[in-house]
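Co-fold these.
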Amino acid sequence: MRSDSGSVGQEGLSFIAEARREQIKKAAIDTIVELGYAKASLAQIAKRAGISKGVISYHFAGKDELMEKLVVEFYVAGAHFMLPHLEAETTARGVLLRYIEKNISYIGENRHAIVAISDILLNFRDADGSLHFGHDGRNELVEAVAQILREGQEKGEFGDFDPVVMGSSIRASIDMVSAALHADPDADTAHYARELTALFDRATRKDPS
Amino acid sequence: MRSDSGSVGQEGLSFIAEARREQIKKAAIDTIVELGYAKASLAQIAKRAGISKGVISYHFAGKDELMEKLVVEFYVAGAHFMLPHLEAETTARGVLLRYIEKNISYIGENRHAIVAISDILLNFRDADGSLHFGHDGRNELVEAVAQILREGQEKGEFGDFDPVVMGSSIRASIDMVSAALHADPDADTAHYARELTALFDRATRKDPS
Amino acid sequence: MRSDSGSVGQEGLSFIAEARREQIKKAAIDTIVELGYAKASLAQIAKRAGISKGVISYHFAGKDELMEKLVVEFYVAGAHFMLPHLEAETTARGVLLRYIEKNISYIGENRHAIVAISDILLNFRDADGSLHFGHDGRNELVEAVAQILREGQEKGEFGDFDPVVMGSSIRASIDMVSAALHADPDADTAHYARELTALFDRATRKDPS
Amino acid sequence: MRSDSGSVGQEGLSFIAEARREQIKKAAIDTIVELGYAKASLAQIAKRAGISKGVISYHFAGKDELMEKLVVEFYVAGAHFMLPHLEAETTARGVLLRYIEKNISYIGENRHAIVAISDILLNFRDADGSLHFGHDGRNELVEAVAQILREGQEKGEFGDFDPVVMGSSIRASIDMVSAALHADPDADTAHYARELTALFDRATRKDPS
DNA sequence: TATGAATGAGCGTTCATTCAT
DNA sequence: TATGAATGAACGCTCATTCAT
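Predicted complex below.
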């Protein structure tokens, strides 16, 4: 059912309920973009969705579940978008450059939502105060890049460097594009993609000794 | 000590008051590190300082002033730390690599505070909802790096790239070290410094064509 | 009842909400009568209403709105009560004496609320420190009386005096009845009405020269 | 020393202490005039006096004592001012008209302080919520006027009216002049004195039947 | 005497959550 | 399903008062 449709909806929910959930998620993103995570209260989200506060509690176990869903679905959709492009590449260098390029494309095409997602990532904390999307999630993303780099080093395509540090730098630079879009929503993402692919192509290249 | 040093303490305050202010600022940083900015209430800060809530209001005009002080004093101290090293360099490349290295040193030596400072930067908002330390502050830092890069390009030390994108990538990579320290407080910052200077040395180098 | 009457209730609110608002307004008046404006906190009002503090914030935008509503609705209702009686009079003297009499009647019938209303008038201040119901409101009431007096002077019904000073004295004397009721809730308002109409009938009469 | 000087200061206090007390009282009046009773905190009063908050607590048992002193001393001084003029009159009518005239004079000469005094009278409450200067004080003033009126009625100088109601009206009208001064600090008090003496002369006169 | 420092209670307000309808 | 109503805790802040120095 779900698995072949690409849908991120939940099993066993009526269309009406599913539509409501989507409406609420959209309103939540709009609210966070506008007011920031800290002031994005359920009341504000409900107001923007044109519904009553209680509805949100009805459809989601709580504010936390709503936030979690927003982030996870954003990343799942991102993976769906990027994977085909990466699988078409044959070299590690090709995969890396395409990864950077398409990741920035995805950010550019979701420049509205990305602002909210970043805000949630940095602020959503569990009851004990620890970041809900802490280092595990972050490490996972870095590790995916590091793996590409390691493979390239083994194949002799890349030079000598710490793949984890390089991977972290790449991720940080990609995420920086989100921040740049926040500052200037009309920024040219293709320009960032060109510059960053060139930057990290040089940075990962074998020394021309 | 205070009066003749580069200390950021305020003139005209008694030693007792100054000590209390320092104690409160330290407690504020500890609290933010532990609970995050959003949950770092005056009550929590006071609890960690072992004082009553009202004391904070007595020594600071309000929570906002306290937060502002934390950030500004951190950056002022950072500039004090870095400037002498940069002025000792004669080439743009030297300045850039030293900038990266010493910035990471400063982060490493303040690995505790940096977590709180980052959190404040990303979350402290004015009454109108806009980030108090918004893009102006961020751009200022990027622009300082971009200026180094531009000079190097003019002198023929660096290759061809957009200095603003490169500068943003450098800043993002340096800030990434803070995040890495948050995940692993015992991380080897010198290793990060070596890897990142090498990375951006390659990335900014003239094409060997 | 509500919908077709001159009621001051708001349209578009459910009966439950309207009932709660009335209950809160009543509790607010009771609280102010008992403790005075300065100590009439939302907590005290809620306590007397037997509800939680938050309910007041739910039904009113804030304490200020609640206070404003109390005063405005009291005056609107007062005007509704008095106007028909004044319109039935044909002479300025008749209007004046009826104004005094019926105003005191209204006070007598609302002897409880009037205490709170007076307290609000004298103490409710805006954020800038100025009285919310300042001299403009007061002058309006005085001016209404002064206008009656001026007309009577023009028609030759009254003697020679400054209508603003006389009007102020009349208003002050009427308001004094409120204070008297505060001291002795069982005071005979009809007696005050008789004495004050006679007093100002003599005071405004043409000299019998 | 003190007892024959007419001073209202306290026995056994050094000149320094007495001067401090006067300074604090003056600052208190200024503060209440400017901010209103409710916002006239000890901190504000101390600020205007150029001293520390604790000094007030040192010289006065508490805020309440300070407020009490301000009011009582104002009335004592008022009696000092008025008595000689009243004792010079030989008829009840003369005493009444002089009372009104000189009372308004006193208000006019203390138009600054009177604003604060009125504010205290209306807002200073005891711990149980009751007005500290409640009906007893008010009644005392009214009763003084009523006594003049009764004597005049017994001597046949005045007509037939309830002396308490008439006395209340007179007091209310005099106090109204304070309010008028609050609205317009440059108001012509002599004009008010002329109009109100004439008004109550007519109102108390024997019917010319 | 006078001070600056500290306290602790109370303020108005916001908010995630619960629940009867 | 959806709603409006209510809760109760926490928030930043103010203040009269206390007290060691």
